[in-house]
Amino acid sequence: ERDHSHQFHLSTMDGATIITKALKDQGVEYVFGVVGFPIIEVGVAAQAQGLKFVACRNEQSACYAAQAMGYLTGKPAVCLVVSGPGVLHAIAGLANATVNCWPVICIGGSLDKDQVGRGGFQEWSQLDSVRNACKFSAEISSLQSIPYLVQKAMRSSLYGRPGAVYLDLPGNLVLSTCEASFIPAVERIPLQSPVSVPPLPQIGDALSVLKEAKRPLVIVGRGAGWSDKGPLMAEQFLARTQLPWLPTPGGKGAVSDAHPNNVNAARSFALRNADVVFLIGARLNWILHFGLAPRFNNDCKVVQIDLCAEEFH
Questions:
Q1: Candidate from 84-93, 108-117, 201-210 with smallest mean pLDDT
Q2: Which key words tag this protein in UniProt (predicted)?
C-alpha cells in the first residue's frame, strides 16, 4: 500500500513550507546557504521542519560544503542561495559536483514572475547560467509542482552518475499560500539507483577476455564505492581471483589498501605492462592517462563496468 503518512495536514501552506517539507519527505537532512531576499523564509521553514541549517559566509563555500555532505552521506544536501550573485557564486560548486559525481541540490531564489524583464531586484538569467553545470535544472512554476520537482531533483542528483541539480524558486511563490489538500503527495524515492545488468553474452565475452589475459590488472574506481554492494563485491572478486589491483585516488577505501594484491606501489609498471585492464567504476580520464601509451600498453584490452554507456570506448 502507498504510504500517505507524509501528506500535509495543515489547512493552508506557503511555498517555503511546501518546498522544505517536500525535501524532508525525500530524506534530505542538511541545508547549507546564505539567506536573504527572497529566500529568508525558506531558511526559517527548513529549520521549522527539523532540517539542519548551516549558515555560510559565501555561496561558493556553501555549495562545496553541501556536495561534500552529499558525498559523505550518500544522499544530496541542499544549497540555498539568493537571486543574482547568490546563484552565480554557487556555480563553481555546482560544476565541481557534477564533474566530481557528488550529489547536491541548489535552490536559488529569483525575482517575482511579473517582474521578468523589468529590472527586478538582482534580476539575472539564472537557469541559463547554471544549465551547463548541472544534470537537471528547472523553474518552479506553481506550488502544486513543488513535490514533483523535488522528487525529480533527488532522482536526478543520485541516479546514474551523481551530480548537481538546480531549482529556481520565484520570490512570489515563497509566501504564496494554497489549501494543503491541493498539494500532491509523492512517494520517497529509494536512495540506491536501480540496478542495470548487461546482457549475458557481454558478460561471457568479458570473462573470456579476463581468462585469456597473461598480465591482467584490476582498477577499482570511486564508482565501486557508490554502489551499495560495490565494495564488498569488488573485495570478494579480488579474493577469489587473486588478481593484482590498484585503486584510483577516488577509489581508495572501496577495498582496503592492506589487501595483499594491491600493486599501487608499482602503479606505473603495472599500467605499462598489463595486457588486460578491468575497470570497476573507474574512468579512463586524466587520472588514468586516458588509457593511452606510453603509460598503457598499446595492445591493452579493456573490460569496463560503468553506470554510463557513454564511458565505454
A1: 108-117
A2: Lyase, Magnesium, Metal-binding, Thiamine pyrophosphate
Beta pairing partners, 36: none
Amino acid 146 reads I
What is the grid cell recorded at 129? Answer: 547560467
Q: Per residue in 230-248, pLDDT tens?
A: 899 999 999 999 999 999 9
Tell me: the pLDDT tens digits for 98-150? 999 999 999 999 988 777 788 878 888 999 999 999 999 999 999 999 999 99
Which has the closest alpha carbon to 165: 110, 98, 222, 227? 98
Distances (CA, A) of 142 to 18, 21, 138, 177, 182: 11, 16, 12, 11, 11
Strand partners, 137: 166
In angstroms, the CA 220 to CA 236 distance is 13
Residue 283 φ then ψ, to 5°: -105, 145
Pairwise CA distance, residues 94 & 161, whole Å: 14
Phi and psi angles of residue 241, each rounded to the nearest 5 degrees, phi first:
-90, -20
Helix ranges restricted to H, 216-258: 222-226, 230-241
